[in-house]
């Protein structure tokens, strides 16, 4: 077992540690800090406009000349069920009123969702070396265009079947997302029931069936967990939650603070904020919406419906009404510069290999 | 990191591999086979009468002169809610009739539940060297009696708080049960929400806070997973599902067969069979009871109410109406003698240390 391996060579990086893309938390500064230290930073752009995607990529490039990954959301976009969406809007208005949060009603007819397909040309133009994705598999045309441009592809699996499907599409690298992971589940084959497989079972199962390099994702936060992931068949790891309390993160102060004093049972799975299953620290909004018994519109509809509420709550530094995505090792998140967090991980790991 | 360590010395065994107690699956033959190979076999007696406990212990002693553990259920016994129990009985009768399963109605007034307290004297009399328990913590008097008799105690934790509480009570060894584990969750502090922590997060968190030897439980099935558990702070492992398809197991043939062709997403958490959360392979009964919307009586009431149904289904080799407890690596269960399964595990692990 080698710490510097096929994956570091493939990605042209020094250490097989990837900063996980965390939309709403990660920044160009975070991605650049990790890439500059010899890891792989990730810039999340899922659902953003091509213009915003270009801006963020260019900002990152100004901060590093090392490779970094850009992360897409590869879901399909469902039709809006008008009555479910209207009932949810009415409910959100009530919640805002009752909690002194300014409410901005969205005109459902004006809703526009960008697809990852709108972003492919930007990625090719900007010569992005690694494109990662989650929530699905890119369509064949996008895969071919990116591969023809010399881009490496990194998909996300939460079950053996998903990993096998990514392999069939010849995706270069597979992130294996255990149930420990914070944020959205990458699940795309079926979420009824949602695959909730621990990394300790999922990694060896996928390593047995698939010959692509694997990244372990979920709860990775120190040398021990990195070593264990390698024992189980990973060639690299993805680290997200450990970077949330860093100054390079745009998480609000209340979220950073809650994260650090949370226990392993405080983070739970919820569809409340986005319509997609995600792991985050339990708060008032999550509990209230469960109690309401309302049907939650699918992703990305619910995500758009709750945007105004979340943005307003964030302005108030109000952790009870915005998502606080976090993995089961949230408490390991330190309020230190991303580069320091990264270097500590590397030092701990090198001592074990 | 040592493969033969403080735990093997403490337990006077050769290898730190414990066969997990699986009530309804494990037998004296299974426990003896593992103990005879230098591991630690476990004899589950949770909820059994003192007389039956004695018989099983004596049967095991006839098959091995090595140490083995006896496993208790340390729950408290709730009062019966008559109307919920009657509604459940009526439902179970309908299910049996609709599925050609003989139905035997239980007289609710005749229900008797044995407590682990009824079994302590037997364990002391039989000089059992290791008593493991789950679903709670033994009361102080039982702890003192067993310790005074020279017995080592092994409790089960599914969260950091539970491990800390076991440590406060000076329990000698702690089993850390990840969400990957088959069978009943050992959870005893709160199951709302149920702690669903992956071993990869739970083990290092508990290892950080607690100085007792830890056993990793959940998904452990080969050398790799044993090595990873040791990396994360375990001094030993508990292996259950891997032994279910062995000839020493009394699982019905249909259960063994389903287990071996199941995938990691086939096993789900359910309260349907016993009133306590447990992981098992999804079947018709689990799905139907969910659909019924009926309130499920607490453990052990529901367990008693479904006993006749489960026994009758087992007689028919009908896997759809009996529990098929299984961890997330159910497919690793081989139809080989327990001794062979054990020796293979040891050989794989020794090659990695």
TrEMBL record, chains A, B:
Regarding protein family, the annotation reads: Belongs to the nitronate monooxygenase family. NMO class I subfamily.
Listed name of the protein: Nitronate monooxygenase
Species of origin reads Spirosoma endbachense
Assigned keywords, A-Z: Detoxification, Flavoprotein, FMN, Monooxygenase, Nucleotide-binding, Oxidoreductase
One of its Pfam families is NMO
- Report which reactions are catalysed by this protein: 3 propionate 3-nitronate + 3 O2 + H2O = 3 3-oxopropanoate + 2 nitrate + nitrite + H2O2 + 3 H(+)
Cofactor(s) demanded: FMN
Single Gene Ontology BP term?
response to toxic substance
MF GO annotations: nitronate monooxygenase activity; nucleotide binding
**InterPro entries found in the cross-reference section:** Aldolase_TIM, NMO
Q: Which SUPFAM superfamilies match?
A: Inosine monophosphate dehydrogenase (IMPDH) (SSF51412)
């Amino acid at each position: 077992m080698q710490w510097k391996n096929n994956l570091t060579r493939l990605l042209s990086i020094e250490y097989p540690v990837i900063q996980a893309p965390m939309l709403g938390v990660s920044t160009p500064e975070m991605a650049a800090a990790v890439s500059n230290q010899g890891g792989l930073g990730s810039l999340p752009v899922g659902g953003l406009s091509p213009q915003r995607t270009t801006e963020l990529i260019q900002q990152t490039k100004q901060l590093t000349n090392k490779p970094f990954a850009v992360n897409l959301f590869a879901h399909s976009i469902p039709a809006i069920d008008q009555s479910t969406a209207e009932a949810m809007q009415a409910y959100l208005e009530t919640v805002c009123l009752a909690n002194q949060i300014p409410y901005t009603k969205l005109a459902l007819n004006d809703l526009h969702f960008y697809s990852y397909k709108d972003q492919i040309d930007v990625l090719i133009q900007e010569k992005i070396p690694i494109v990662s994705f989650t929530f699905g598999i890119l369509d064949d045309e996008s895969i071919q265009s990116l591969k023809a441009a010399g881009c490496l592809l990194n998909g996300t699996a939460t079950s053996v079947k998903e990993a096998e499907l990514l392999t069939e599409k010849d995706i270069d690298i597979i992130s294996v997302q255990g149930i420990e992971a914070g944020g959205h589940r990458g699940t795309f084959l079926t979420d009824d029931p949602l695959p909730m497989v621990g990394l300790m079972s999922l990694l060896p199962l996928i390593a047995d069936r698939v010959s692509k390099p694997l990244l372990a994702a979920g709860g990775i936060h120190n040398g021990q967990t990195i070593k264990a992931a390698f024992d189980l068949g990973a060639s690299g790891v993805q680290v997200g939650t450990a970077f949330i309390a860093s100054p390079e993160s745009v998480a609000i102060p209340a979220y950073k603070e809650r994260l650090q004093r949370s226990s392993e049972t405080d983070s739970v799975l919820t569809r409340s904020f986005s319509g997609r299953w995600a792991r985050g620290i339990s708060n008032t909004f999550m509990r209230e919406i469960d109690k309401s018994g309302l049907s939650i519109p699918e992703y990305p509809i619910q995500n758009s419906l709750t945007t105004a509420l979340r943005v307003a709550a964030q302005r108030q530094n109000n952790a009870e009404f915005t998502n606080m995505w976090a993995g089961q090792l949230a408490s390991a998140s330190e309020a230190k510069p991303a580069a320091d967090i990264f270097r500590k991980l590397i030092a701990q790991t090198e001592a074990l290999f």
